[in-house]
Amino acid sequence: MNIKASELIAKLMKLGMMATINQVIDSETAEILASEYGTEVSVVSLYQETVIKKEEEDKEEDWRPRPPIVTVMGHVDHGKTKLLDAIRKTNVVDGEFGGITQHIGAYTVKINDRPITFLDTPGHEAFTTMRARGASVTDIVVLVVAADDGVKPQTIEAINHAKDAEVPIVVALNKIDLPNANPERVRNELANYGLVQETWGGHTLYAEISAKKILNIEKLLEQILLQAEMIDLRANPSLMAKGKVIEAKLDAGRGPVATVLVENGTMHVGDSFVIGVYSGKVRAMFDDHGNAVDEAGPSMPVEVLGISSVPSAGDPVEVVESEKYAKQIAQKRQELLRQESAKKVRKVTLESLNELIKEGEVQELRVIIKADVDGSMQALKEALEKLSTSEVRVKVIHSGTGGINESDVMLASASNAVIIGYHVRPTARVLDVAEKEKVSIKFYNIIFEVTNDIKAAMEGMLSPEFKEEITGGGEVRQVFKISKVGSIAGCIVTSGKVEKTNKLRMMRDGVVIYDGVIKTLKRFKDDASSVDAGQECGIQLDGFNDVKESDAFETYRVIQVAKKLE
User: Fold this and answer.
1) Measuring CA to CA, which residue among 450, 451, 446, 413 is closest to residue 430?
2) Which segments within 27-134 are labelled E, that is strand?
3) Residues 6+ apart with CB under 8 A from 492
4) 291 Rama sector, left if φ>0, alpha if ψ -120 to 50, beta otherwise
5) Mapping DSSP to helix (H, G, I), strand (E, B) and coil, where does residue 197 land?
6) Contact 317, 260 (CB under 8 A)
7) Measuring CA to CA, how many Å separate 245 from each of 123, 338, 559?
8) Residue 558 forms beta bridges with which residues?
9) What is the pLDDT of residues 111-163, one digit of tens each?
């Protein structure tokens, strides 16, 4: 408004508000203040300011058919990567760790001069992550099922993911060259999940292939193109490019690099763009063979250089008129992100459960169970599901054996669930992720304690009387067996501080094998009362000698917490 700050402060004082030059005033005060000087104020939300406005016209006559984008899914070892290899005629598996697909890439292949883009994803996990971030880039799912093995748990999971995303499925019956292959049986199994082939009166296309022997691969590609024709995929290459990030990383020599899949329009070298909450200018682009390209049209995957920072998979990419505008939008989006993350995310915890039930926010308590053995897991699952009441249904959305891992936490975060660990512990990294995602993890050693806690939480009677405080952690580097004494664990303390008075929990592969007291704690040959991070020590456990190298441990103390009235 071109008015000195001192004058505005004086005016605010007259209006009864004591303000300083750096103070932020709310929108109502700003409107009153501006009206004093005859100026109108329009309040725009940050979100409205981050929507990219474009003047371009999208004419229907400019639309052209675009290549289909295909994701290959299926059970482990049914031949997903082998199939992509057969399609690309190159061998990726051998160079990869343990023959498991390590990264998400995208490749374009041509059949009869018609391109198809494949997303080489490690199965449905990447598909789910992309969808959890609101990005559905796949047009068609190719479901790989081994003809000798049939439908497996991950096959069903892949079918459910594809159906949930409303993406058509083309079935590739792999390994038909094997003597015990039985494609008919597999067809019958798949028909139970709604994948009925056309000759049986259904709508699903099937292809019998052998990825290893490179048999009928052409037929599968033809079926994909046929399916693509049915869904009529079109895009307008004359517009400014829009797309999604498939993966992104920080390259030591080239800076932030993102694999972008262009969905509409064409991207050129030199274009300014907004990518998630960052901005950038296309310095260079490379296709899936690593060749530099000047432009990328619809359904084309390219590696893009020239981004201000590393975006996330699933982030939207949009080309804009100028670099200045791109920076403006990115700045506003970062501000909006800061505000959103500052707001308290309400995730369900056992402590807040009753309050959320009363407010009508929770009708279903979702639980993820991880236990040390299958029997305990089944027993826990049954016990918890019996706790459902007319107000709240207890639903176990996932259960498994072994330590709590990152994908459990991500699943809990996406579905607002509580994780119950029974005789298992997560690693420090998983705990960090849980804290960031605000996921509640509870640990138990007795089944009825779990049911009592959840029952009490539902009735609003949960009393967090005792709380564990982790004081230190480390791992066993060597085990010394001394006659008449037992096993001494030669350890290194990796975090915090280990004190002789602490309790200690020993873990093997995330499963608790000992929980009790420290009998002796030594530094070299002397008894020690405490050992700091980075130091080595000898630990003997009370009545437990089955310690092995690379076992992990954490020390803790139990503190009593006064009950708070919230």
Assistant:
1) 413
2) 64-65, 69-74, 105-111, 114-120
3) 474, 475, 477, 534, 535, 536, 537
4) beta
5) strand
6) yes
7) 18, 21, 46
8) 468
9) 777 888 887 655 555 565 555 554 577 888 888 888 888 888 778 877 877 77
